[in-house]
Write a structure and sequence with these properties.
single chain, mainly beta, nine-stranded antiparallel β-sheet, 5 helices, disordered N terminus
């Protein structure tokens, strides 16, 4: 009991204390498709919301007294985890090359990670485009099946064949791109599942999830739109079956059945709005 109480105090302390180091330029990437369309004048970004987060997770490593986060393949058990929004200044002050998780003692280890989530609504010819851009400034220790999603009103739906989800990351000998085919659509949202890459040399992990939207009823006039960007990171190793149990809507973003909720971090959503008759 004493150990768990101590973990709660330490999480609170780490969340409220910014960690400042030498600043480094952002490693974020943007959608290749959107870049091409912007260059040709076909896509016009109308609204965008970007948020920055800090997550502190305490792991029980009592069974692995020589455990080293970010390099060991042993399964981890999360004791507790909490995420808060941080300033843009704090986010970009973190140097991914030197930032390290903080060990408490031989039995518990704290892992602190930073990420940003940007949600955009753009005009794309006769359609609109919703884009969710994720950047993991520090790569989390546990890498399993995560979920990236956008919730939206039930008067719009994705245009068939336009949904894509790409994962970009750096390694010691260059960079890699993975196109995720694990896509889902609900009545009030769409999602993709991404399997975070393993390896001690993995860095600069980014993901782009995007699609065009059209009216469900072509004769309806839509006066406002909302795109609710969300990301759920698995803080314990999960199967694709567990990851696939998620749901998405425009109110809370991503949700899981109660028995699986504790296996994922929860972050505030990045909500994007656009008011114009369509």
């Amino acid at each position: 009991m004493k150990k768990y109480f101590l973990c709660t105090l330490i999480i609170a302390s780490l969340l409220l204390t910014p960690i400042f180091v030498n600043a480094e330029s952002s490693n974020q990437v943007t959608s290749n498709l959107s870049n091409n369309e912007i260059a040709s004048g076909e896509l016009q970004i109308l609204s965008q919301t970007t948020k920055y987060y800090k997550t502190v997770t305490v792991y029980d490593t009592s069974e692995y007294q020589t455990y080293t986060l970010r390099s060991n393949s042993q399964p981890l058990k999360a004791i507790s985890s909490e995420t808060i929004e941080v300033s843009e200044e704090e986010y970009f002050s973190i140097d991914p090359k030197t930032f390290q998780s903080v060990s408490i003692n031989a039995y518990t280890t704290v892992d602190t990670t930073y990420l940003s989530l940007s949600t955009s609504i753009g005009r794309d010819g006769q359609y609109f485009r919703y884009v969710d851009s994720l950047a993991l400034r520090t790569v989390p220790s546990v890498r399993s099946y995560d979920v990236l999603a956008i919730g939206y009103s039930n008067n719009v739906k994705p245009v068939d064949g336009t949904m894509s989800c790409n994962l970009y990351y750096g390694v010691s000998d260059g960079s890699r791109t993975i196109n995720s085919k694990m896509l889902k659509t609900f009545s009030n949202g769409s999602s993709c599942m991404i399997n975070l890459p393993n390896g001690s040399d993995v860095s600069s992990v980014n993901a782009i999830f995007e699609f065009r939207v059209q009216k469900v009823n072509p004769n309806e006039t839509i006066s406002s739109q909302v795109a609710v960007g969300d990301y759920r990171h698995a803080k314990e190793t999960v199967s694709i079956i567990v990851a696939n149990t998620h749901d998405v809507d425009e109110v809370i973003g991503i949700s899981f059945p109660l028995k699986y909720e504790s296996k994922y971090d929860i972050i505030p959503t990045a909500d994007c709005y656009w008011n114009e008759a369509w």
